[in-house]
Amino acid sequence: MESIHNLMSQLAIMQWSDFLDIALVALIIYKLLPLLKAPSTARIAKVAVTIIVIAWLTDVAKLHTINFILSQFLAVGLLAFVVLFQPELRRMLDHLGNVRLSTFFSNSKPVQEMESVIMQTVMACDIMSREKVGALIVFAREQRLEEYFKTGTQLDARVSEQLLRNIFFPKASLHDGAMIIRDGRVAAAGCVLPLSDSVRLSADLGTRHRAGVGMSEVSDAVVVIVSEETGTISVAVGGMLKRHLAPETLEKMLRKELCPEETLENEQKLKNLVKNMARKKEDVYEK
Length: 287
Hints:
Elements: H1 2-13, H2 16-32, H3 39-60, H4 64-75, H5 77-84, H6 86-98, H7 101-104, H8 114-131, E1 135-139, H9 146-149, E2 153-158, H10 161-167, E3 178-182, E4 185-191, H11 207-218, E5 222-226, E6 233-237, E7 240-242, H12 247-258, H13 261-286
Parallel strand pairs: 1-3
Antiparallel strand pairs: 1-5, 2-4, 3-4, 5-6, 6-7
Helix pairs in contact: 3-4, 3-6, 8-10, 8-12
């Protein structure tokens, strides 16, 4: 009861600026936490937390020598982190730079025509899979992927099954690179992606698959890969590769990753409303 009383008394003397300060801090933490999903960011966070915890435990246990060493390391920790984790820090800064300010303060995503984009992509991948035509398609989400976007040829075209198949046609000039779809449109093609150096990947995977996984490791993008050798359809998200996908499974994965749940629910409600209105009209005509 005493703790509750102290809390209530503290709330009573707080001003509106204090509540605003707390709300802004909570919002910033909430928006920055998803960045820890990236393997590079998680690696830095794990190392930092581990060192701090060990330093605290050695201080409690009075292990003076190891605590002194850790204290000295923490004293120059910023410089050490810059030196040791330079590639990861660079990727983190790229992530923050590629996130739009509007999406930082909002959960909304561009979903116009996303249903059509997914359907056209699935149809193209299904055909290319049967014809064993290699493809590498990157769906940009909150991160804009400007660094990789500039390495290819800018298009700004509507997504269609014919366009995707023409770009990845073996004799086409852009078929070797990756296609980036952003805001529901083909933004660029022939783009160069970073290769993954993960040891978890199978040895039989080629450059196209490693590029797809590498792209998903350094960004929040969803990457679709069609194997040129086997025709297998795969999807890379968050550094994880899911292989041997049927077109129906590919469609479900893309809907799950690219279409917000709220949007799907609203679309379902709208469809149900239209159906109910149509039924009512039919009932009126029958009467």
